[in-house]
Design a protein that fits this description.
Blueprint: H1 2-20, H2 26-40, H3 45-58
Length: 62
């Protein structure tokens, strides 16, 4: 778990700086995929899934 959390932080930081510098390169895509992959294996996965489900279900009601 400690390794996963640190990789999430690392990929999140890299992705943040790539997005700030408007770098749309294969490296940015790899950072985004890595961030999502490692984030999915943390404790944050369940709240993110619930939030996504709630937003998708709310869209038809707009």
């Amino acid at each position: 778990m400690a390794i996963t959390v640190s990789l999430v932080a690392l990929f999140g930081l890299v992705l943040f700086f790539l997005l700030r510098s408007h770098s749309l390169t294969p490296g940015a895509a790899f950072a985004a995929i890595g961030f999502g992959f490692f984030l999915a294996s943390t404790g944050a996965a369940e709240p993110i899934n619930r939030l996504t489900t709630a937003v998708v279900q709310a869209i038809p009601n707009l």
